User: Fold this.
Amino acid sequence: MLQAPASLMPTPRSTVLEDGPASLYRFLPAGNATPADAAPVLLVPSMINRWYVLDLRKGSSVAESFVGAGLDTWCLDWGAPEAHDRYFTWQEAVARLERMIRRVRRETGKRRVTVLGYCMGATLSSVHAALYPQHYAGFVNLLGPVDFSHAGMLGHMTDPRWFDAEAIAEAGNVAPHQMQAGFMLLRPTQNAAKWVGVLDKWFDPAFRASFEALDHWANDNVAFPAAAYTTYIDELYQRNLLVQGKHWVAGKRVELRQITCPVLTIAAEKDTICPPNAAVALNSAVGAGNTQVVNVPGGHVGAVVGSKASQKLYPTLITWMKERTCN
Assistant:
């Protein structure tokens, strides 16, 4: 991992479990927070981005806001895969998530956990929730695609007519720069525009601190294990098997209608990585009677750590968890 600025990852935490390159963190309770009568919360980030986008800096942190509201908050850090992790499969990722949830339940003594998945972490969590619905007090899909027929430009770029995931992964794990090249094609002028904006606001200390934190995170990505990558592209992006009920994991068919806990889906108005329709499709596919969709401003990352996140997103998540989930 790159040398991080001191302002990053501000919420105190302890490491409860290590599982290969992955770790399970438990954030320490805030001294002045009244414990909430809600299920423990596990944050599940994307496998290809560092976890601390969910604890970026003070005032721009999902974890900090949850802890301050008295929620017992945990986080799965997928870690950085090594060369030998090229054989780590999508099925093994689901199994790793299951071990983490099992440990949260054991440590807290609670039967059920609320899972908040972000980006690909939400997609993976939806698979797990369908296979193990009894473990879930609630599920939050934070900008995670479920119906890949609405995947937008990324769906077009991975069209099997011109995209061969197995050929790309044949050399091993898919490197961060390979994936970032694809994301850059979504907005080709974004990098130039970013620096124009920086020059305009560089002498604003608040802006500079925010920019440096986010820029560090954006350049601190990890590889995608080759085996998991090929399944993700082939079965989800290219064949859209998840929402059709045709995705299988560990010999079991993944049926989203098995998810019966309360479900909250967050969609971002300007999200090009997970267009809103790709995320909100979850609510129509699950068997839960208690579902909600909330639209927030911003793009795929800005919606989570931008200046407006603390005004709308964080309070919405906290209120939903306190009202919809319980120990």
